[in-house]
Amino acid sequence: MSEFTEELWTHYKDETTVCVDAIEASLADTPADSVTGARDCLRCLGLIKELSEAMKIGGTATLAGESALLLAAFHNSGEPLDEKTAGLLLEAVTHIKNTLPDVVGQKADIAPPEPLLAAIKEAGGRFENIAHEEKQEPGLESATDVSDHAVADPGLLIFFGSIISENIPHVAHALDAGYLGSTEDRSRVSTALEALRQAADGIGFANASHSMEELEKLLPEQGSLDESARNNYITNIGFVKSMIDRIEADMDIDVGSAVFIKSLQPVLLNDFEKLFEKAIPAIKRHRDSDFSDINEQESAESVVELLKLIDVQVQLIAPNPSLHNLVLTQIDIFGRIAHGEFGSDERLAPLAVKAIKLSERCAGDLLLYGESDFDDEVSELTENLKQVILNLNVGVREKSYDQMIEYLSGLGVEKKFLELLTTENCKDLMVSLSRGEHIYAILADLESDETVTELFVNWLNEDTNPITSRSVFFEERTYFEFILTSSITPDVISEKIKSIDPGGKMIVFDGERISK
To answer: Tell me, what's the pLDDT at 96?
Structure first.
């Protein structure tokens, strides 16, 4: 068994012992009917449950969890904690305490006594409804809340922080120019990732554990990371860093955030500069594009991808709330354009270029001096960009709709269909066209045969993107006329419709696209 795994078991034993002692002391004279006493006991029981689940000790986790539910139910009922219930809780924690040495020694689960577990469940059962009512006094978490927040135990987080501090420098090595992907290089990074994955698993950080697995997958068997793998590697590290930042802000303790910055600054500086070098030409290309050409949305998407990478790296090596807000505002604007929410205008590109240049200067200050003189200027420019969003929403929205209708008309979409389209419909169509999809119109009788209707609707949801529909009277029956998009060719759609409606009586599709 690895040294790290032994550390986890030692930590589990120490933390569980502290919790059991605290509960025993609180229950000695049954003061757990007070808000403070109940809260402390619940937190301890919740922590035992979470730690036991993390170590795959299901019996202890179940006993601690049922005890927490009983205590929460009793307190929320408003009744004082009686001697019998206090005795049950005390018996439960005594069992946990007595079996702890064998659990840790054997690294194996020990099931709780069934009579004890049944008695605890029965005692809490009569309060089942009351426990969920909103009678809770201020400051007392429910058993569920305790379970959700139990991982916030400071001792456990500090332990996790020590694993972060020890291993992140080795994880960052994969981004270093000196990383050649040799057996030794790869082993160094993989060993660190495995230690972090085990630590994240041990305290229930499933998403962080998943990120470590993804980082491992990105490492090539030989050689350094290519550009795509490198960007994904940085993004996954950024996710873990953002999680650490949130924990540190909430708990006001050090969990290793500073080590990320120290380890990643030297290996990411070159990437950082290149991203800014790429961003300005990308924005200028976007400025020169024409809304009548779908490439404006494609160019906006490329700007968004660059800005997202910049934002990740800002948070990794030059964190600053004002700078983060400025980059996010730009991502918002270009993201909206990429999704067809509105078109660009002459006000946006100059401000966006200015924002990139200012972001680079601000980041440079932060890297060199640890602070920036540009905060006020950054905040002002952020507000100016937000005003552009408002202006585009108000002033350009209708014009953009007219332009989209004109564009769709030029593709041969009939007037009767254009009249059905809302602004949102147009946006959806534009996005579909940018992906190379086709627009189709299909008539369907959805009332005559339930089986055919079900098959048709399922097919629509699986293989097409329905845009809008209307009811029409056709051949003395009421049909629904669907406008939809799909990457499927007309001949394939015809065959599919024949299989859904072999008699050809409910669905009408002649194989002609509305848009080619």
So the answer is: 93
- Please answer whether residues 23 and 55 qualify as being in contact, where contact means their C-beta atoms are separated by less than 8 angstroms: no
Tokens of 321: 């709330």
Cβ atoms of residues 237 and 215 within 8 Å: yes
Stated pTM of the model: 0.50
| CA–CA distance, 111 with 120 (Å, rounded to integer) | 15
The partner residues of 471 in beta bridges, in order of sequence, read 480
CB distance 333 to 352 below 8 Å? yes
pLDDT of residue 29: 58
Q: How far apart are CA 465 and CA 454, in angstroms?
A: 17
Between CA 481 and CA 474 the distance in angstroms is: 10
List CB contacts of 426: < 8 A, sequence separation 6 or more: 340, 401, 404, 405, 408
Among 200, 99, 94, residue whose Cα is nearest residue 151: 200
As a whole number, mean pLDDT of residues 47-51 equals 79
Q: How many helices (H) and strands (E) does the chain have?
A: 20, 4
Q: Tokens at residue 56, please?
A: 């795959």
Q: 480: helix, coil or strand?
A: strand
Residue 16's closest CA among 72, 64, 58, 88? 64
Q: What is the 3-state secondary structure (H, E, C) of 365-397?
A: HHHHHCCCCCHHHHHHHHHHHHHHHHHHHHHHH
- C-alpha 55/C-alpha 64 separation (Å) is 14
Other CB atoms closer than 10 Å to residue 84's CB: what's the count?
9
Q: How many Cβ atoms are within 10 Å of 159's Cβ, its own excluded?
A: 21
Q: Write down the pLDDT at residue 121.
A: 84
* pLDDT grade for 168, boundaries at 50, 70 and 90: very high
Number of CB atoms found within 10 A of residue 484's CB: 22
Q: Is residue 71 within 8 Å of residue 87, measured between CB atoms?
A: no
Confidence of residue 290 (pLDDT cuts 50, 70, 90): very low
- Residue 80 near residue 27 (C-beta atoms within 8 A): no
Assign residue 347 a region (left: φ > 0; alpha: ψ between -120 and 50; beta: otherwise).
Answer: alpha
Residue 434: its pLDDT value, please?
A: 62
Give every CB contact of residue 41 below 8 A, 6+ residues apart in sequence. Answer: 22, 23, 26, 27, 32, 71, 89
Tokens of 392: 């585009």
Confidence of residue 388 (pLDDT cuts 50, 70, 90): confident
pLDDT band at 400 (very low <50, low <70, confident <90, very high): low
Residues 350, 384: Cα–Cα separation, whole Å: 12
- Residue 86 in contact with residue 32, Cβ under 8 Å? yes
CB 388 within 8 A of CB 322: no
pLDDT band for position 186 (50/70/90)? very high
Query: CA distances (Å), 174 to each of 90, 188, 266, 275, 447, in order?
Result: 51, 9, 12, 19, 61
